[in-house]
Amino acid sequence: MRRVNQLTTLSRAISGAPSHQRLVQGAAMMSTYTASNSQCFSWRIADRFGISNPSVASGVAGTMFFSVAASSLAQEVQAKEAPPAEKLMPKDVVLYQYEACPFCNKVKAFLDYYNIPYKVVEVNPISKKEIKWSDYRKVPILKVDGEQMVDSSEIIDKLFQRIHPDNSVPDSDEERKWRGWVDNHLVHVLSPNIYRSASEALESFDYITTHGNFSFTERLVAKYAGAAAMYFVSKKLKKRHNITDERAALYGAAQTWVDALNGSKYLGGSKPNLADLAVFGVLRPIRYLKSGKDMVEHTSIGEWYSRMETAVGEPTRIKA
Predict the structure, then answer these.
(1) Strand ranges inside the chain, DSSP E
(2) Burial annotation 12-51 (CB, 10 A radius, 16+ → b, else e)
(3) List of the chain residues with pLDDT < 70
(4) Which among 101, 118, 205, 280 is annotated as catalytic?
(5) Would you say 222 and 230 are in contact if contact means Cβ atoms under 8 Å apart?
């Protein structure tokens, strides 16, 4: 209780300071807090995403701290994909996730688009007690009628084949190329953007601390300590991925995707394919952050994104 009171007092003091000072003070708070714990908090932040080394792989970790997309902006109406036939529809689907994880959002975009109802279990990033039953220590994990599925792309492939048993290949070479581009390029461009400045880093962590499964103490520490850690890590990410201008890299990636559409509504033509869903799933959490707003303002991706919001439609998540 004494430690919680100390953290509460420190948090209030930090919140009144300018953004850059809050990050420095947050880093100090992280150091103080973790001095009495067996594991450095920055490593816990990375471990939250199943990453063994935050300085090497935090490009993936950084993309987890996003806000969730808001209401649709689309002007034209397009129906969702028809639900799978009753005999093909999974009966019990449970997603173990972090709310802001882009890879979890990829899976949710697929489930929403195909009208597959699913339950959500929000995993505590520190204890991970919700997935202690599994040998797999990362998210997303999807249980489908008792069967465990892991890795977002493999989950989507398996679900696609399950609801399309006559289609042995879930996507074309073109789709697979762009799905790989999402995992190997797009996600690495996002982290340096959402942590580009002190204010943007705090914006990202403000969402995750209010929507993630944290204890009270963890929430107090994570907002400022996590933002401070990722603000400085993002500078290393720029160097690692040869990024000199964060926004230029983001705008370039967005425009690369628009160019790939070649004038079509979707990469899939008249309706979204798996690549469309992958790009949308990863971008959906950042759409209403400053970086996402800038991306839409300075590129021509906005029309495609709006069409995707309408096509994917309302979440099919089953409320507890």
Answers:
(1) 93-97, 119-122, 141-144, 147-150
(2) eebeeeeeeebbbbbbebbeebbeeeeebbbebbbbbbeb
(3) 1-79, 82-83, 85, 168-170
(4) 101
(5) no
Catalytic residue among 33, 65, 104, 231: 104
At 2 the pLDDT is 52
Tens of pLDDT, residue by residue over 67-78, are 333 333 333 345
Let me know if 101 is a catalytic residue.
yes
Tens digits of per-residue pLDDT, 114-154? 999 999 999 987 789 999 999 999 999 999 999 999 999 99
Please give the pLDDT value at position 52.
41
The 3-state DSSP class for residue 190 equals helix
pTM attached to this predicted model: 0.76
- Using CA atoms, how far apart are residues 53 and 115, in angstroms rounded to an integer? 37
| CA nearest neighbour of 182 among 84, 115, 124, 256 | 256
Strands 147-150 and 141-144: antiparallel
Active-site residue, from 33, 49, 66, 103: 103
Helix (H) or strand (E) run with residue 157 in it? helix 152-163
Q: Residue 20: what pLDDT? A: 57
pLDDT at 39: 42
> Token pair of 161, please?
């084949």
- Three-state secondary structure call for residue 291: helix
What whole-number distance in Å separates Cα of residue 21 and Cα of residue 15?
A: 10
> Does 98 participate in catalysis according to the annotation?
yes
Measure the CA–CA gap between 78 and 272, rounded to whole angstroms. Answer: 11
Which of 258, 274, 255 lies closest to 175 in space, CA to CA? Answer: 274
- Distance, CA of 176 to CA of 282 (rounded, Å): 16
Do 94 and 318 meet the contact criterion of CB atoms below 8 Å apart?
Answer: no
Q: How far apart are CA 95 and CA 148, in angstroms?
A: 10
Torsion of CA 78, 287, 105, 166, to 10 degrees: 30
| Catalytic choice (41, 49, 96, 98) | 98
